[in-house]
């Protein structure tokens, strides 16, 4: 409901965020004004919200996260020793070994952070924020690590090819067209080889998952 949404934003600013001085909150409090969307858009910029006004759910999550951070900052002594009910009986050793084991995927800060990264990396949105986080990890590993960037920047040098040694199999009646056809055929063969390599890699990857643990595809046989 639009009215409830606007009241919610005003309540957050008045009670928790308090970014504006009281006398500067008039436009935001005037929820029945036709200019309220403009006031809200300005407010989002002023609090450095990374989302657009049309992204209501993401904006709400982010503002709630901001409110929680500010609430904690104002009452740090009260909350610093608090322990989530679900984490009281967890194994401390396991928790220290895996810092993300108790990650709260419903935390507004977590959702806002994942969404901001997804927008920055132009990753398709998904209802499950963990799925988006996995996509971000894959993209970073494959494209943004130092090794991946260095590999992408490497120039590929090919070997010279003597076209006259490759039989075209037909004659167009034009020497220039014949040479162009030979080049296209060689490029097509190269693409097929690359595709076959990827298919083989995929088959090996699937076999590694579903095969018996004793299976060693490198030896070309099953068992010992």
UniProtKB/TrEMBL annotation:
UniProt xrefs under InterPro entries: RTRAF
PANTHER family the UniProt entry points to: CLE (PTHR15924)
Family statement: Belongs to the RTRAF family.
Protein name: RNA transcription, translation and transport factor protein
Pfam families: RLL
